[in-house]
Amino acid sequence: MNLRIKEKILTKFSKLYNTNSNYFKIQKLPNWINFYTNELNKELQNRRKVKFNQYKQGTVIMAELGVNIGDEMSGPHFCVVINKNDTQYDHIITILPLTSHNKKRYLPLNENIAIKNLQKIKSELLKLNQILINNNNNPFEVRQQIIVLNNQLEITRNFNKETYVDTMNIRSIDKSRIFKYSKFSISENFVITDKNISRITNKIIKNIVK
Questions:
Q1: Is the same domain home to 66 and 143?
Q2: Residue 11: which residues within 8 A CB-CB, separation 6 or more?
Q3: Shortest CA distance to 57 belongs to which of 195, 204, 210, 183?
């Protein structure tokens, strides 16, 4: 592709971006382009990871799905891992996006992905607050942990609602798209039941062979 064509494409993109700044996909573009650029740099500099976390089928993760077209899910989304036999050396996993918005084609998950983490966070906050009560020095590190956990508590409460699986938006992604969080986040710390994995699998099969 010559320079003139490249400039024409970039000008077209710039006009689209600047005249549609309120559209939600346009708003997601800067973060996505930044993420994409960083990942390309890693490839060019041979800094890609060799080993990744290993995910059990049914694990809920937070993944960057990029900015896509039409009804394809865009942006950071909770997803459920549906492939089996993943290893640390596998760089690709197959996922289905999760959402709190219901549509006819969506399948209710029938599980609350937030409740266990809410309980875990509240339990840890009780322990930390007790440390402050028993320690007259009020250690700075403990106070900082409490601030972080209170923020995590508010974030997690936003997901304390009905969750649906978009079984039509099945896709495979590179593991570098998965966000790393703490032991108090939902991502990587919640695994849906085998019963619900079976429901999801049956729905996928029905979508294909109906």
A1: no
A2: none
A3: 195
Regarding whether 70 and 11 lie in a shared domain, the answer is no
Q: For tokens 């041979």, name the residue.
A: 46
Rounded Cα gap, residues 105 and 32, in angstroms: 27
Local confidence pLDDT in tens for the 210 residues of the chain: 888 999 999 999 999 999 998 999 999 999 999 999 999 999 999 999 999 999 999 999 999 999 999 999 999 999 999 999 999 999 999 999 999 999 888 999 999 999 999 999 999 999 998 888 887 676 888 889 999 999 999 999 999 999 999 999 999 999 999 998 888 999 999 999 999 999 999 999 998 886
Q: Which two structure tokens, joined as six digits, stand for 13?
A: 């993109």
Whether residue 34 contacts residue 43, with contact meaning beta carbons closer than 8 Å, is answered with no
Domain boundaries, position 122? 115-157
The beta strand positions in 100-159, using DSSP E, are: 107-108
Instruction: Tell me which H or E stretch contains 36.
Output: helix 24-44
Based on the fold, state whether residues 63 and 130 are members of the same structural domain.
no
Report pTM. Answer: 0.89
Q: Do the Cβ atoms of 119 and 181 come closer than 8 Å?
A: no
The verdict on 109 and 55 lying in the same domain is: yes
The Cα–Cα gap between 72 and 187 comes to 21
Give me the number of domains the chain comprises: 3
- The CA distances from residue 57 to 91, 112, 157, in Å, are 15, 17, 25
Residue with tokens 């936003």: 158
